[in-house]
Amino acid sequence: MRLLHTSDWHLGRTLYGKKRTAEFEAFLEWLLATLDEQKVDVLIVAGDVFDTTTPSTRAQQLYYRFLCRASRREKSEKAGCRHVVVVGGNHDSPSFLEAPKELLSFLDVHVVGAATERIEDELLTLRDAKGIPELLVCAVPYLREKDIRCFEWGEDTEDKNRKLALGIEEHYREIGRLAEERRAEWANGEASVSARNIPIVGTGHLFAMGGQTTEGDGVRDLYVGTLAQVNAESLLSCFDYLALGHLHSPQKVGRSETARYSGSPLPMNTAEAERGKSVVLVEFDSGKFPEKPAVNVRKLSVPVFQELIRVAGDINAVESRLGELRCGGGAWVEVVYEGETFVPNLRERVFAQVAGSNLEILRVKDARILRNTPGTWNEGETLSELDESDVFLRCMDARSIPAENRLELWNAYREVLASLRDSGAE
Fold first, then answer.
1. Smaller CB count within 10 Å for the chain: N or C?
2. What distance in Å separates the CA atoms of residue 291 and residue 293, rounded to the nearest whole number?
């Protein structure tokens, strides 16, 4: 059996106000071709299908068209796989994802937008064309605070974070135990099927301890308080493979080969574009091993659909680099001026340097201004380039909030954001 793990599509996301519809469409076309070329049986999307809880009509169109074509039920399409599993992320609206759940099930598309009232409803049994079980998926979505624990009077931030992490870990241990029990029942009850080594796959959308992020990659804090609290390595004994989402850089969980973040297929900013993007191909071989399937894991590189370049340095370095890039293709460029002296006509000089070329300047950022006058806007910067956390931090800077008061204010603000997202507000 072959499984393809991807996550963090963020359909509908813009880059400094620039729409990226063509990139998303190109990625989904590539993904369809890859499902066919690699003979993939199961596709897992580990959260953050959309960038907001209220995706645009075009983003929805891309998503549903892909699911229709990925399913082999559409006879005119060659590409596809037997099953698609989609779980919700922190950017997704659970109710929006699950609204067409019953309809999508006829295409063998299985959706779990939020934690279920009964944990066993997150345990999916995927069957082959003959109805024989071939894979167990613990389809765990992004777990909200209200899903896994209750606040108690007198708790401080450290207590809350500790209980939150323990609740997440316990959720995974419980569903992993249920999966092992179900597999054991099949092994004892279905004489025609050797079910002892049916693979168990877990999903998740969380921040694992030791996970690596990129500055400005758009990864929102999942939980109030200190991040990186979930010890995902402690969960690995439950699963033959753990497919995670949320972090945008492809990476292993600890040193495990079989617990990974696939990363986002498109770079979320120019800094992230310097690192390669990939999806994860997982192959299970149950034929040679009576108790546990062999697992082979490898990354498949995602092509670059739109070149993103970050040009940084003093004015001489910036102009020199832009001069070199003029002869290239139609790259999108972010310019970060890092010189110490004031350049009054910075934007004019940058745009003059690329006039008549195929380069497109998305943003000109003056790091000197940001360093010297916290809380102000960079030259040419717009509100759409910031998220709500950036704005709040700048408000604290502009109002000279004392350092000893910032943590309490910051945590209170993040609680407000978390409650808005949990209620489906945008």
1. C
2. 7
| C-alpha angle 90-67-136 in degrees, rounded to nearest 5 | 70
Residue 374 has pLDDT above 70, yes or no: no
* Separation CA 426–CA 417 (nearest Å): 10
The 10s digit of each residue's pLDDT in 163-211 is: 777 888 899 999 999 999 999 888 776 544 555 678 999 999 998 876 6
CA 174/CA 234 separation, integer angstroms: 13
pLDDT at 300: 97
Nearest to 70 by CA among 97, 118, 124, 34: 34
- In tens, the pLDDT along 101-118 reads 999 999 999 999 999 989
| Averaged pLDDT of the chain | 84
H/E element, 167: helix 157-189
By three-state DSSP, how is residue 417 classified? helix
pTM: 0.84
- Asked if residue 63 lies in contact with residue 111, where contact means CB atoms within 8 angstroms, the answer is no
**Residues 281, 296: Cα–Cα separation, whole Å:** 8
Burial class of 166 by CB neighbour count within 10 A (0 to 12, 13 to 18, 19+): middle
- The C-alpha angle 110, 103, 127, rounded to 5 degrees, equals 40
Helix (H), strand (E) counts: the chain: 11, 17
